[in-house]
Amino acid sequence: MLEVAALRAEALQLRRLAEQQHQQAASASSRFRGELRTLRQSLRDEGILEDALEVEAEPEDPTKELQEALALSQGVSEELLSEAEALRRSLQEAEGALEEKRQSQQRSEDSFLECQEAAARLRGERDTARSELEELTTLASAFKGQAEGEICELRWLRLSVKLMRQEDADTLESLKESWSHGNRKWQASTRTLREKVNQRTAEVAKGDQAMHALEEKVASQGEQLQSFTAAALQELRQAQQTWEAQLQTERTLRQQVEAKLRDETAVPEALKPLEPVAPEAPEATGDMASSLEKERQEVRRLQSKLAEAEQTIGQLVVSNMPEPTKVAKPPQPDALRTALTGGEPRRRAS
Prior knowledge:
Elements (H helix, E strand, L loop, with lengths): L1 H45 L1 H10 L6 H203 L14 H38 L14 H8 L10
Keywords: Coiled coil
């Protein structure tokens, strides 16, 4: 606020000074203009300017008087012209000073406007600070009330704690006998508890040993199951190879019989050799075809069984081992073979 007041006073002083300078310049210029007008009027009244013009218009006058008058008028005119030039220069200086005063006045007005803006800004900051101060005062009063309430509550809690401690001391004195009785009883029961703990420890050790034995048994049974599975897979592969070999043999025999039948049908009856015709040949051929078809069906069934068995064995190998209390006996090779072949004995090709 003090800075704003100082700036405002300085601006007012500058404005007064500018007004005074402007008034002085205006009075000086009006005075110079009045003097110039008076001088010109006096020259016109005396006829000096007109005589000078006449002399200039008639320079060839032979009379001596006219020449002297012309010389005198020329001197007077030169003096008047020099005075007019001096007056013109002083007028220009006065106008320059007036322009400088105007510029200084404009600068003073600009500075005054800046001072007004600064004062407005400072007034806004003052209002903001005042509002913040009011808010802080309100908050301080609220905090003061809250602190007073908390102090009252803390005093009440302190009194309550003090009373509770006193009551606890009285209660402790009254419960000392009960505590000593309970302590003696607990010491008496500690021995029994230690014996039970030692017994439980021995039982846990036995259980660990039994668990290790059971795990070893499960591992051995798993190895047996894997060996039985490998043997079953080997037998299945051997059976598949045998069936494939038999199927190839049957296919070769069938091709030979079909070729022979085609040759016999292609030769005319007259050119056939007189050989005894076995009446059982067509029947034997039909039996062979039916047996081949049955063998094919059997091979397809065995292949499907083999695929299912391999899938089951893979699942058994990948999956987790069964629980120790429910370990099943590994299937025997004959039982596994019977289950894989669907409960039917393997057929041998004749």
